[in-house]
Design brief:
10 helices; 2 domains; RNA binding; Beta-Lactamase
Length: 245
Amino acid sequence: MAEVEVLRAGVLAALGEVGAGSGVDVVGRVCRACVRLLPVDGAAVSMMVDAGHREIVYASDAVSTALAELQFSLGEGPCFEAYVFGGPVLVPDLAAGSPPAWPVFAAEAAAQPVAALFTFPVQIGAVRVATLDTYRSTPGSLSPGELSTALQVADIAALALSGLRAGGGRWLDGDGRWMEGAGMRYREVHQATGMLIAHLDLPASAALARLRAYAFGHGRSLLEVAADIVAGRLRLDEAFGGDSP
């Protein structure tokens, strides 16, 4: 049996076992297998609804985590392109030129040991719910066979994500739609966005844009700024009052 089919069978078995662990654990198994099966150095799965609702489910290493956080902080990157258009985003040589859709992310990602990016949409049935993001430290394209394997792994990631429909996480409802659940990394970002919506009477997209602009302009992570707002360490009227974010 091919290793990708062994992975699929293992995910199915884990999801069927009582007390086998959380869906996050199963997603982690898929990410680690992705690194073994493909010529990539790291992989992450992030759930998405739109540019304002994204959560890292699992990242195989620190660079994958940094890339996922950078994309959410900036609101641009290959994950958003793959999610919106529903197809793979393949960048075999990031240094060859900044993709026009996300130049700021490409410039910021250059600080990481990343030379190539390959991102794939993840769907549960007809609902697009996540992306599988991979990178490697050397440039080069995926072969047709490797691309086929990557698409199969993305399908298995969708299967693994179905384990988040139950238990303590409750990240997905019975129809595969995303919902807020325990342990989400960006919970405080969503809370801070809600506070800005109420304080400045902004639509959600504009409130999140304010947060992102403030974080980028002050050289801080979106997570740090959101945490300060929720804890009351950063006053909304001082940071976001007036016409400037």
